[in-house]
Amino acid sequence: MDVTTCLKSLLLAIQQYRDSRTAQHLSGLKCEQLLSSAQVLPSECVSGLVELAGNPSTSPTLTSSIISLLSQLACDDQSREILHSSYNLTSTLAAVIHCHSNTPGEALCLQVLQKLTYNTRIFQSASCIHELITFLMTNIQSQNEDVVMSCLGLLANLCRDNISVQIYIKSLDNVKQFYRTLINFLAHNSLTVVVFTLSILASLSLNEKVGEKLFDAKNIHQTFQLVFNIIVNGDGTLTRKYSVDLLVDLLKNPKIADYLTRYPHFSACVSQVLGLLHSKDPDPAAKVLELLLAMCSVSGLRSLLCEVVFKPAGPKLRAAGRDGGRKAQCGLALVQWLSSPVEGGESCSLQVLQLLSELLEVSMPDSTLSFVEMLLPTLLGLLKGLNLSQGDAHLRKHCLRISYVTSLLLNILLVTLPPLCVCGFSQVCAEALLKTLELMSKLRQHVKDMETSFYRMLQDQRIVTPLSLALTSHHRDSVQTGLSLLFEATPLPDFPSFVLGESIAANNAYRQREAELSVKRVAVQEVPPLRTNTSTLDSSSVHSKSVHSLVEKIQTGLEVKDSHVSEIIDVYEQKLGAYASKESRLQDLLEAKALALSQADRLLAQYRFQRAQAEAEARKLGGLLKDAERRREELKVELSGQVLEVERSRADMEELLQHNSRLQRDSEEHQALKGAYNTLLNRFNETERLLKEVQAAHVSLTKQTDTLKKNHEALQLQQNKCHFALFLSGLRAELRAEEEKVKEKEQERRDLEETVDVLRKELNKTEQARKDASIKASSLELQKSQLETKLKQKEDELNKHSAMIAMIHSLSSGKMKSDVNLSL
């Protein structure tokens, strides 16, 4: 599947998931070249993936699949930078960890975050970074073996060269306990964990009391040995990278840098580290070169590095080193990386040029000359190979390489003046520089900032030697190039024209003397050579008078007796003549040497003058640098205080914003409650008016009820009186009847006293009548109880009627009155 089809399938799968929340087509896709194109389709795909990963409602399984896909995309530095800066993937993954912790994809998410944050500045004010730091510290302190290595590596990335994150961690309450946990990790059996821990401690506590105790003179040598062993013998590239970064960070501390200059095994360790450059892998080579460049920034280590780089390895080191048996110089590996065809080796080539420029900047001992002679053809080859048809990227790389090569060649020319100013060695350097300047002159209208660099180099004091050699050269092309550059440089304000004139005059005088000596040398070569040793020639500085006196002695002391003696004298005369010619030649050579020495003295005086000016300027710059460093420290302290103040202000601002939002919500609620209150107030007024009306009706009804009660009581009394009156009237009637009967009986008794039998009979009858009266009295009592029951029922009915009257009165007072009257 090609890239376009893969991208379209991925975008379709993302859209299907957004619509139907199904991820059946998403997890199986592979788009390793997703970020290789600058078109819209890859951007939409990556944006969709990041959006899905950051959505809290996305399932953890799908989130893990998306993170796995994004991990494949973050395969190089450029892709990681794009994912971090353009798509904000770091904050998204931090939010994923915050929302989906303790899930199967947590470890993978931490690994991708460690990739993204390596050598990347992360602001602690970014989204979910505080939560991420808290999560990392919690897992580190809990010593969760599943994720502790990834947590340590990620926290090391966040803390490195990041003052805001360091201040935030130091401001936490449990920072001391965290330090103790990190110190315990130094005894871990994994070297990677130890390196991560040392990196975190160096970032957080290097300039504090904890760091001073941890990296003091007693422990620092063990730390150096551990770091060098990991760099040389480390199993993986990851551990080696973090070890190099740790040592680079430690070298930024002047005290630790001074400890390293006095480290007894420094040369042996650096030789072993340089052995890694013989491999063809650009990643470890780049880290080694980064470490060497950091060492060059320490003045005490630069000379030690020169001794190691430009000398063959010793026998002990060859026996102990990884590439034992190699007799080539360590510098040979540097030269090989300059012209290496390995993919990705361009950055290593530039690092090598920068390293050599640093090493050859101060001085060049005699042992380094052979290395420089080997280096020059490679440098000349780097200046070639420009092909404008390959595009802007190739042109940019070539121009960057030219700038590094030019700087290196200028340093070589500077340190070889004046003893080698006209030798073939400097002639090659001058030719390379002229070609570089000619190329820069042609490219200055097409490359950004090239014109500025070109004119800055023309005003450099070091350009005098190659320009003077070109103007006095026998080659027409060199003279034409020199003249064109001189035409460009003459109007410049800081062009060293006086020094150029002196250099041209010295070169011309030397060439003239060399021509005169060459003529005499040809005349001397026509004389037959003498059979004598070189010590005789070297000691033949006798004056011409001694030669003539020797000839006179031979002529007077010897008698010419035969032709053989005369022939011998002729031979000696020829030899003495040759001696005389040799003497004159040596005298000419001495004069030429004296002239050259005078020129050299003049150049030395100029050099000393320039050096004195440079030293005075360097001292001045040193003082300014110290002032700037002191000011920087003061500003650093002030900045840290201001950063804390800004953090506090930001926290206060966030609290104020939250308080403002709460007040806004309260205001809205108040407005709503105010409207409801007004509604309720209107209803309350209406209800109060109705209540007053009802109360007035209630008062009237209460009065009516009282009246009814009084009427009811009067009626009840009347009813009771009526009942008792009836009852009494009945009893009275019966009593009268009985009295009448008694009277009748008494009359009858009086009438019938006479007869006892009649009275007894009458008495029995009376007795019987009395019984009947008793029965009638009990029946009357029963009727009374029945009447009371009926009266009670009437009272209940009256109460019910009163309640109904009250209810009806609450509905309508007028109707109530009529109903009450009707009830009454």
TrEMBL record:
Pfam families with a match to the protein in the record: CIP2A_N (PF21044)
Keywords recorded for this protein, A-Z: Coiled coil
Protein name from the UniProt record: CIP2A N-terminal domain-containing protein
Keyword Coiled coil: yes
Alphabetized InterPro entries for the sequence: ARM-like, ARM-type_fold, CIP2A, CIP2A_N
Coiled coil: 597-697, 728-804
Species of the source: Astatotilapia calliptera
Domain CIP2A N-terminal, chain residue ranges per copy: 22-411, 426-516
